[in-house]
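Budget justification note: compute hours in this period were largely spent on complex prediction jobs such as the one shown. Inputs:
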Amino acid sequence: MEFIQQLVNGISLGSIYALIALGYTMVYGIIKLINFAHGDIFMIGAFIGFYAITVLKLSFFPALLISMTACALFGVTIERIAYKPLRNATRIAALITAIGVSLLIEYGTIYVRGAQPEAYPSTVLPSTEFKFLGATINSQSLLILGVSLGLMILLQFIVHKTKIGKAMRAVSYDTEAARLMGINVDNTISATFAIGSALAGAAGVIFGIYYIKIEPLMGIIPGLKAFVAAVLGGIGIIPGAMVGGLLLGVIEAMVSALGYSLWRDGVAFVVLILILIFRPSGLFGKNMREKV
Amino acid sequence: MDKRKALGIAMSLMLSAGVVAGCGGGAKETAGGDKKAAGGSGDTIKIGANLELSGGVASYGQSLSEGLDLALEEINKEGVNGKKIEVVKVDNKSDPAEATAGALKLVSQNKVVTLVGAATSTSTLSQVQIAEKNKIPLITPTGTNPDITSKAGKVNDFVFRTCFIDPFQGTVAANFASNELKSKNAAVFTETSSDYSKGLAKAFKESYAKNGGKVAAEEAYVKGDTDFRATLTRIKAANPDFVFLPGYYEEVGLIVKQAREIGLNVPFMGGDGWDSPKLIEIAGAKALNNTYITNHYSVEDSDPKVQKFVSAFKAKYKDKTPDGFAALGYDTGYLLADAIKRAGDADPVKIKDALASTKDLQLVSGKITIDAQHNPVKSAAILEYKDGKQGFKMKVNP
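Corresponding output:
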């Protein structure tokens, strides 16, 4: 019984990681940038959703849509201002800029509204519990899993079946050749950021509803965990991010279940180190050699 | 390896951002030509308040600040020895390092004669050295860790408090669990990074064992965690009939909510760290049923002193109900004013001597006498949460 309950706990936690990791992995897949600000866009999304619900008195789905739209615009703005001028700079320069952007968003938010936490109103979505094989499952955790899976499928569809998806794959494969073939690289990258950030915004609202408490530094740890999840599944691979997130959540729950709750974060990063040592391309990654 | 480097960079950037922010806060007030301790000069007596006005436990600092302001407003109507008390506030952002920086600023730049704060034990402990070294009295309204005023038998001369200490709260909780709730098999869930939480848990375990109870499970969490379901499932598997949860409202709210979700419906109990309106927002009224806390006072206490304070507070702050922190902030103002009056002078050393000899001073949170360890001897209240409201359960004397 306890094992099944722990599995349920782990999957609910993992679905959140997966949702954030989807956006992470997309941006990396297209422009090879580890967007450290992703976790902070997630935080902004949580706050926009909170204000949409409490100030504008909206219900869940409109708030989710507003948050996703606002985050998409925000993500594109960040890309245009902070990352685009560095398109041809070294990878490390872009990475440091990303860290700078991340800190700017965190402390900017604290400057604007203070560092005190907010509590999501508990009436946004009904929360019912039901028993399954002796484990108690909350309807909200099913919703999170459902939204994560749904968005992953949608994302796969966009990447593999639409024109913009084709452009993304082309840019990711060879930016210069894509440009020569008449693809607008800048717009494609903006679209990637818009989609990735919208996903982070959705994750923020869902996190708020599930965990109630939101605060300006809430994006740091989930952001890092999502990064681990993305690397675990193979960074740049969409189903990999999903599986990586769920797996990480389950690993963490099991570590706590064994009585080592204080080691949980440590274990997550040990997983990162192990995967980088033994399978740098991730669980779903193929070892590809570049042809010369 | 790039990623590990990146992490290192992230960490160092965060640290330096913290330092910069710490300095920024102090820019407003300049030391402008102070030649000697200016605290007592002119018609005002300058005191410093180093409080958690933002950050993780901002609710405590805000309440303390409001209580203190109300007390000073009342005191300044007549003044103390013909002078008015002026308070200089700094925000320690709920961070011990910021608290140290804030205390240094108040002492060296603002030349205050007394320091008030911080709300939490950890942030108060980080200021003790400064108070001792500069011979400036420090009064923490709500820092309940015993080490603040005396460590290993050595009393810190300049450090006082307005609240009772952790072992007392832990002991009261253990007695309540054994005698009133008839608990035999308790679980203890502590925050490892907090001296407060560990102090309460230690006292609880000792007294609970003395009462013949058994601690069935001991678990811990870290500040800032959001998902406790896995650990709670483990606690539930140990079948406790009571959970002692000494922590602060942010995590406590989430823990109680998640415990109820996985069907852990036994009584929960904590200390004054629970006392915040945010707790009810985070946990939800229903999840908080069947939970208890030990606290410094109850709004429902019929004592006229308490009722006068409650109505004055409501009049000043738009009908807001004062929590325990507001009451202790208020009491700290009066404790200090009483000491300054008896000292006859705003000299820090004289204020310290007067504080140490406080006897039978009637305050909102009880009649206090400062003992040899600089702790007040006073009573505790046990409150019960019912439908999102605190109800007065009983008063316990030391």
